[in-house]
């Protein structure tokens, strides 16, 4: 006889075959998450199991369709007021998972959907794991992305299952493994179709009962044996990991070093000492401003997934898209439309070469995946078949949205609008990927301006998560919500911004880059400026970024911003000399840095194992007419450039360019790599104190002039003691 005991989030079923099934289904949550209040419930379930002499094994599974367990409830952690409170929660998890591991009967986790953070820690405490082969199934410890570490035994159990090196990689990056990768790594024992997940888990319990194990331990290479099973080897691994963390984080993120410390303690001093330090460091990290900011990012992005740009307006379903222009941007937009959104794309370019480029963009990325065995060849062929192209408008009639990625020329773009109106249907949306032209100008001659919108991607399109959606006064609400939904299906995070020069991201980035140029003009060496801003937390410095984007493109955008907003956007006059010198940056191997042959290591470098780092092209100083001489500290350089960015971000909010501080923070982090540990420019201004910021701006204004004058919003906020959040 099957009996059932329900304890809110946990249901115990005890079928006749004697393998009890604990189903987790947290009420009122769309995904399973672990909460402190479940402690008593789960203990009661285990007591029930122990009392039931009929039960000789257990399967833990989820009652949700879309998740195993997505981890500890981040909101619960966020609400904690003290380290003690957090530590109690972590220790509760540690004790519960120890209890599972120490059960006399075999316990198997049957995993379908994400098993992340505390969810994977729970699964790792079981004696075996079976995973569904579904795309939704992912396993990982992403706590580092929240500025935390796995706090309920994860730092101790993962290395035992997947080895020291792999576990460090997973915990330090937050990387998630798909089902197949999890089996390969030794994190899961078997992968099966979802339809037989539970059945397989029950069989595993029986196998464990008979044989004590379900899969053979992974074989290690001789090198891995040395690196993982000897203390000398392990020290090398820990030293390398520490060096890598320090060079990547520049000391801005406290969690990764704590993760290494916890693993090392477990390995050298034993499991219990490892758990002690794990719960201690977890609780300390939870109270840091870095973790608070990163948790803020999690809440913001989760919230944004539900918004579609205009409240209450349903988006139309996009079934087919068109892309105009097969260049780098057009190729990238086609790629994400086909591979992420699953929407077929018709590309139009005036030349066969453009078409070839667009196909090559998708082919190269997909082919790499096939070569690395992340994708089957048949899947690649299926996705490539969704891309078709031509030099005319054949196949455009039934497209729901057209994204234009042609040359930045107003006349040309206006002609494109007319062509689309003539060759598509009356509902087809015309989305322009311009980075600088006002959308209202592009829509000026449109017969159906309600269908015209801006959809600004960032390069490289397949990697950068942000898009700016730019509505004009005439754009219809349905066009906005359909475009937002389309971008989200492409895997992007869209923010809706106002139609002004530079929109949001490029406008504030422009002012920041201008200031970096001003610092160069005072003779500060190029590499010092880049190093200062990388230390501040940006992925690359402004001079490197300018070389990447193209100095010519940067100057063009600077001109547009100057025309729109006046003097504070004036670029130092000498920058013109770079354009006259045909210095365009990386694309023509002539910029602030050395590229091409000259950047390659010489034979002498190779013979002496000398690494050739990035080198400044010294001739740039001669062109600019300056003598390089370091006179500022890293902090001074970073503050001077960033303070301009902050002031302009506040001005954009005041002008309604972004709808709220949250969108502004997400825009800068996802669009430019603005340091995530600060939570974005608006959160950073709050943590600095608006009055402090205003005082700093006034002091810069006194030294460098009115481009630093604090904007009205900041001045008023400082007076009223207000914050953005
Ligand atoms: C002690 C431990 O070591 C500490 C921890 O476990 S810390 C937590 C570690 N876990 C994580 O970081 C995972 C966070 N979650 C995610 O990355 C993503 O939500 C996901 C990959 C699981 C799913 O993504 P996706 O399918 O796009 O769904 P998404 O919209 O993000 O989430 C669905 C719902 O689950 C909620 N959710 C998911 N994980 C959550 C978590 N760990 N805490 C609280 N809520 C969570 C979301 O808030 C959202 O709620 P809503 O429907 O009420 O808005």
TrEMBL record:
Pathway(s) the chain acts in: Lipid metabolism; fatty acid beta-oxidation
PROSITE patterns: ENOYL_COA_HYDRATASE
Domain of life: Bacteria
Catalyses which reaction(s): a (3S)-3-hydroxyacyl-CoA + NAD(+) = a 3-oxoacyl-CoA + NADH + H(+)
SUPFAM superfamilies, per the entry: 6-phosphogluconate dehydrogenase C-terminal domain-like, ClpP/crotonase, NAD(P)-binding Rossmann-fold domains
Keywords linked to the UniProt accession: Cytoplasm, Fatty acid metabolism, Isomerase, Lipid degradation, Lipid metabolism, Lyase, Multifunctional enzyme, NAD, Oxidoreductase
Gene3D superfamilies recorded: 1.10.1040.50, 2-enoyl-CoA Hydratase, Chain A, domain 1, NAD(P)-binding Rossmann-like Domain
Enzyme Commission number(s) of this protein: 4.2.1.17
Domain 3-hydroxyacyl-CoA dehydrogenase NAD binding, residue spans: 320-499
Pfam families: 3HCDH, 3HCDH_N, ECH_1
GO biological process, one term: fatty acid beta-oxidation
Cell inner membrane found in the keyword field: no
3-hydroxyacyl-CoA dehydrogenase C-terminal domain mapped to chain residues: 502-595, 637-722
The keyword NAD appears for this protein: yes
GO MF term set: 3-hydroxybutyryl-CoA epimerase activity; enoyl-CoA hydratase activity; long-chain (3S)-3-hydroxyacyl-CoA dehydrogenase (NAD+) activity; NAD+ binding
Signal sequence range: none
Recorded family membership: In the N-terminal section; belongs to the enoyl-CoA hydratase/isomerase family. In the central section; belongs to the 3-hydroxyacyl-CoA dehydrogenase family.
Protein name as annotated: enoyl-CoA hydratase
Source organism: Psychrosphaera ytuae
GN (gene name): fadJ
């Amino acid at each position: 006889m099957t009996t059932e005991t329900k304890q809110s989030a946990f249901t115990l079923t005890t079928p006749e075959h004697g393998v009890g099934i604990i189903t987790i289904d947290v009420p009122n949550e769309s995904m399973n998450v672990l909460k402190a209040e479940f402690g008593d419930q789960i203990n009661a379930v285990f007591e029930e199991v122990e009392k039931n002499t009929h039960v000789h094994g257990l399967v833990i599974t989820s009652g949700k369709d879309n998740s195993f367990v997505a981890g500890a409830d981040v909101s619960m952690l966020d609400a904690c007021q003290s380290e003690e409170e957090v530590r109690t929660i972590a220790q509760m998890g540690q004790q519960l998972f120890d209890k599972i591991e120490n059960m006399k009967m075999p316990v198997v986790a049957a995993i379908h959907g994400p098993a992340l953070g505390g969810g994977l820690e729970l699964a790792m405490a079981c004696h075996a794991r079976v995973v569904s082969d579904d795309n939704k199934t992912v396993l990982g410890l992403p706590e580092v992305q929240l500025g935390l570490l796995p706090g309920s035994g994860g730092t101790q159990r993962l290395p035992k299952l997947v080895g020291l090196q792999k576990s460090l990689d997973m915990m330090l990056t937050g990387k998630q493994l798909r089902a197949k990768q999890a089996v390969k790594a030794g994190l899961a024992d078997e992968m099966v179709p979802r339809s037989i997940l539970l059945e397989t888990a029950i069989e595993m319990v029986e196998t464990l009962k008979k044989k004590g194990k379900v899969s053979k331990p992974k074989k290690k290479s001789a090198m891995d044996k040395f690196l993982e099973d000897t203390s000398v080897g392990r020290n090398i691994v820990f030293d390398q990991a520490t060096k890598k963390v320090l060079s990547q984080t520049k000391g801005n993120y406290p969690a990764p070093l704590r993760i290494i410390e916890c693993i090392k303690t477990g390995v050298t001093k034993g499991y219990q000492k490892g758990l002690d330090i794990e719960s201690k460091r977890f609780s300390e990290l939870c109270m840091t401003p870095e973790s608070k900011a990163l948790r803020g990012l999690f809440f913001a992005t989760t919230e944004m997934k539900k918004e579609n740009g205009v409240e209450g307006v349903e988006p139309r379903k996009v079934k087919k898209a068109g892309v105009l222009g097969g260049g780098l941007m057009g190729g990238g937009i086609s790629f994400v439309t086909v591979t992420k959104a699953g929407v077929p794309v018709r590309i139009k370019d005036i030349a066969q070469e453009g078409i070839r480029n667009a196909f090559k963009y998708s082919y190269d990325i997909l082919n790499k995946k096939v070569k690395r065995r992340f994708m089957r060849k048949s899947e690649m062929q299926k996705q490539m078949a969704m891309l078709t192209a031509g030099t005319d408008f054949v196949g455009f009639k039934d497209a729901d949205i057209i994204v234009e990625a042609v040359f930045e020329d107003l006349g040309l773009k206006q002609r494109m609008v007319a062509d689309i109106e003539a060759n598509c249907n009356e509902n087809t949306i015309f989305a322009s990927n311009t980075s600088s032209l006002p959308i209202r100008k592009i829509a000026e001659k449109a017969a159906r301006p309600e269908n015209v919108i801006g959809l600004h991607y960032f390069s490289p399109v397949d990697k950068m998560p942000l898009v700016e959606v730019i509505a004009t006064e005439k754009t219809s609400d349905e066009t906005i919500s359909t475009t937002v939904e389309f971008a989200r299906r492409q895997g992007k995070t869209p923010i809706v911004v106002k139609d002004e020069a530079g929109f949001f991201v490029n406008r504030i980035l422009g002012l920041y880059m201008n200031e970096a140029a001003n610092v160069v003009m005072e003779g500060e060496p190029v590499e010092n400026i880049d190093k200062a801003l990388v230390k501040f937390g940006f992925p690359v410095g402004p001079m490197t970024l300018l070389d990447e984007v193209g100095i010519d493109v940067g100057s063009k955008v600077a001109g547009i911003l100057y025309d729109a907003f006046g003097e504070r956007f004036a670029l130092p006059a000498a920058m013109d000399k770079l354009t006259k010198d045909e210095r365009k940056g990386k694309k023509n191997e002539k910029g602030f840095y050395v590229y091409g042959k000259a950047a390659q290591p010489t034979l002498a470098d190779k013979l002496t194992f000398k690494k050739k780092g990035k080198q400044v092209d010294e001739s740039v100083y001669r062109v600019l007419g300056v003598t390089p001489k370091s006179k500022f500290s890293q902090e001074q350089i970073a503050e001077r450039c960033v303070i301009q960015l902050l002031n302009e971000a506040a001005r954009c909010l005041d002008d309604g360019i972004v709808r709220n501080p949250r969108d502004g923070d997400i825009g800068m982090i996802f669009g430019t790599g603005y340091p995530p540990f600060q939570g974005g420019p608006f959160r950073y201004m709050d943590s600095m104190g608006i009055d402090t910021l205003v005082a700093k701006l006034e002091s810069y204004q006194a030294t460098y002039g009115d481009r630093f004058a604090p904007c009205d919003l900041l001045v008023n906020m400082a007076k009223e003691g207000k914050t953005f959040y």
